[in-house]
Amino acid sequence: MFLPKLRGCCLCYLVLLLGFSAVASAKSERLATDTIPKDYQKTAALIDLDTVSTRPAYLKGYLENIETTLSQTLPVLSQLPFATDTLLAKAQQLAFTDARMTQYLRDAKTGKSYRNEVFGVYAARQSDFTQADAATFYKGACFRVELYNFALNLATVAVVSLPENRVLQVYLLPATQPDIPQKLKALALRIATESGAVQAALGFKPTENDALMSDTKTALNRTRCERSQHLCVAPTFVKGDKALWAIVDLTDLRLVGVRWTNVGASPQNKKAITERQLQNETLTECFCKKETTVERNNWKLNYMLTSSDGLRVSDVSFGAKAVLFSAKLVDWHVSYSNTDGFGYSDAVGCPYFSTAAVVAIETPKVHDLVDSGGKTIGFVVEQSFYSEGWPNPCNYNYQQRYEFYNDGKFRMACASFGRGCGNDGTYRPVLRIAMAGNQNTLSEWTGDSWAAWQKERYQLQLSTTPYTPEGYQYKISTAANTGYYIEPSTGQFNDKGRGDNAYFYTTVNHPDKPEGESDLVTIGPCCNTDYRQGPEKFVEGEAATNETLVLWYVPQLKNDDTKGHEYCWAEAYLKDGVWNARPMPCWAGPLFIPIK
Known about the structure:
Blueprint: E1 12-19, H1 38-41, H2 57-70, E2 76-77, H3 87-95, H4 99-102, E3 116-123, H5 134-137, E4 142-149, E5 154-161, E6 166-174, H6 182-194, H7 196-202, E7 232-233, E8 236-239, E9 242-249, E10 254-262, H8 280-288, E11 292-296, E12 299-305, E13 311-318, E14 321-336, E15 342-346, E16 348-349, E17 358-359, E18 365-370, E19 376-386, E20 397-405, E21 410-416, E22 425-435, E23 441-445, E24 450-452, E25 457-460, E26 474-477, E27 483-487, E28 503-508, E29 549-554, E30 557-558, E31 569-575, E32 578-584, E33 586-588, E34 591-594
């Protein structure tokens, strides 16, 4: 594996263990395994190993490895040997010396082993570290390891330092799944292409090269994939103006369903619209391994591309005032069909050694922010992430944007440029905004006054939501009433008034117990239509007045391919004899206005 030459030649490792509890929160010290539904309790390993001999031959080796692993002292299946002397293996070994990493390897009552698998060991980036661990990061190279518990569906993340030979931090993310390794991606493709149901639906036997989005997690209601209780992916096959989703359950290692979606007519479904050469080396060396500092228009900030949390800004200040500790785009949840409830959980980030499903293609851009009259009113930092085959079906194009105004306002925004895998999709990006200061209180406008949120909570922006005459829904302020009003979009993006329809969450930011400050895997399932988008894991009713607060903003953007009314959509058209793309994006994001 490539080992990046990071500043200070640091050598640390971030280790990630995943599992599930239907009731436990991310801050729980223990998981209540006795609350797991009965149909899960009876098969903790979630594969009936007695049926290995009846499974297809291509699964036999993997299933035998699972059976052997479950009987070992350390029941963890890994993509690389624990016994080797490589740096990656040493990091893996050190992680499992911490009791917090091993507490969910076995069932507490029966002592039986859960099915655990290391999904990857990666070079860690600066964005993987909290502020408290930043100094350790600069001491040498850094890595992270991701491991998944199939029975419990819980994420446990640990940062370890080889130079210091210690585990720096460990935290849990219940109901969370990492991106799958190449071995499981290959198994999913094999299961899909060998399936008689897939072959009958398509009318031919597809090859693995025919599949799109084969390693992006999905869900399908009324199966064990529902609410991401099982690890499921959806290899997708385009045929004409439709896409066939083959929902593969990697927990049970079988196809659990197929679904068709309409993707619209496309002049070419297999070939990219234009030739694109990924600038991976430049992006990785210049923007994924280190921060870039911008000082402009009285603003100062750092930005960098993360592994899977998009473009992060940090240490943002305006004049002498600290504004943001950090801000980033954690996930894109894409749900198709409210009836069947399936879709993708997308991460965006760096092109190399990344868990992102949709990667950065171009370098970040910093340019003037100009109003309709041509006057420069600030500047913009933005990043595009898209599939090379965009705008063909089952290819995605996202943009992330920070606007910094000369008068102290700022906005965090994002957009989908379509077209995706269907014409009935809803996009739910998860924005995380960590405010500067430790004496903040969030208040909402009730129609005639401001009411403070006394505890961590969430709220949905409705058509009946009251706003101030200026359009403000919230304000985050200190006791001296300094801070910002928060204006959600109700049509400010020239989107015909569709608005953000956003879920808004506030949580307390604990320096010693980071909740999303370091790089996150996809923290929520793709297809929940309610508040369960991931940030609710950190909402526990803690007192939230005069605190260091994190704001989570999850817009809901419904795509539309109706002629003249397109939204979150894209199409290809001929110009000068070549194919070009015409996007009809859907934008969302809150505006922060200084309290005068």
